[in-house]
Amino acid sequence: MEIINRYVYAVVRRLPQKQRDDIANELRVLVEDMVEERTQEGVSTDEIVEEVLMELGSPKQLADKYRGSKRYLIGPDYFESYFSINKIVLLAVSIALGVVFAIETIINPLEILDHFIGLIVSIFTIVPSSIGWITIVFVLIEHLGVIKGEDVNLEKDWHPSNLPPVPNEKKQIKQSEPIFGIIFLIFLIVAFTVSNQYIGVYLVNDNEFSTIPFFHKGSLSAYLPIIVIVLGLLIMKEIFKLVLGRWTIKLAFYNLITNVITFAFVGWIMVNSSVWNPNFMDEMVQAGIVESGSEGYQAIKLIWEIGTQWTIIIFMLSLLWDVGVGFFKARKK
């Protein structure tokens, strides 16, 4: 029955992923057996099912019994997601910082000790701040009901008729999507804050490595606080998507807000083109890659100009597309 499926879904989505299938089957059999035992002539099956579900209690209460745990700063409903996201972020930060350390060592091996000290300092600054940011997000989710409006209604006036429907598969968010998003955004934060000078063209000359950066370090540094805040908001959005597991109107509106903020910031950068390295072509000439005024020079210059413009335009269009997809999926029945 649909009402039983709703109840089972409402219970197991609060449980660890690896336990969900077994408990879903067990709970479904339990409910069906209890209904069968109470079936009487002249009594509606729907009424019996409702009575059984009321006896079992609200989905949250039953999930607590299966877990054998109570409420904490970050309660059991979200602790598995909290723990998983921390592991993902720590892994992404470790890999990103390791890559930066490797690049720095290859380009300037004589200063490996300084690079190692910089790695340690970065670990002890980025890792605690990342964990702190994630904790704040989950505290908001847990205690302020940031994304759990329908759960609040279930706990205040629990009744089987209030159970939300099992989400349409097209509304559900695959775990791989927000996980990839979190990892990508962490890499961007590390790249912009720790190693933006290494985002560019890599050169090898007489067994020595060097780079021609895409960005103007001085101009980019002025934007860094805003960049980190915007990327933090986008990470928060991915966390909400991972925890909720489905598109809702509430999530779609949060997605709209974060994307509008990002769109405005990127548009501001687009107007102020000084964020790009103004000496990029001159440095290409000095490195001997092209000759000034040659056909190759003109071709690379055209690619550089079009590339810097269209990178931002495509990114902004992707933000608009993401908003549209979010609302489209949230409105699906």
Automatic annotation (TrEMBL):
<feature type="transmembrane region" description="Helical">
    <location>
        <begin position="88"/>
        <end position="110"/>
    </location>
</feature>
<feature type="transmembrane region" description="Helical">
    <location>
        <begin position="116"/>
        <end position="141"/>
    </location>
</feature>
<dbReference type="InterPro" id="IPR047928">
    <property type="entry name" value="Perm_prefix_1"/>
</dbReference>
<keyword id="KW-1133">Transmembrane helix</keyword>
<dbReference type="Pfam" id="PF22564">
    <property type="entry name" value="HAAS"/>
</dbReference>
<feature type="transmembrane region" description="Helical">
    <location>
        <begin position="310"/>
        <end position="328"/>
    </location>
</feature>
<protein>
    <submittedName>
        <fullName>Uncharacterized protein</fullName>
    </submittedName>
</protein>
<feature type="transmembrane region" description="Helical">
    <location>
        <begin position="179"/>
        <end position="200"/>
    </location>
</feature>
<feature type="transmembrane region" description="Helical">
    <location>
        <begin position="220"/>
        <end position="240"/>
    </location>
</feature>
<keyword id="KW-0472">Membrane</keyword>
<keyword id="KW-0812">Transmembrane</keyword>
<feature type="transmembrane region" description="Helical">
    <location>
        <begin position="252"/>
        <end position="271"/>
    </location>
</feature>
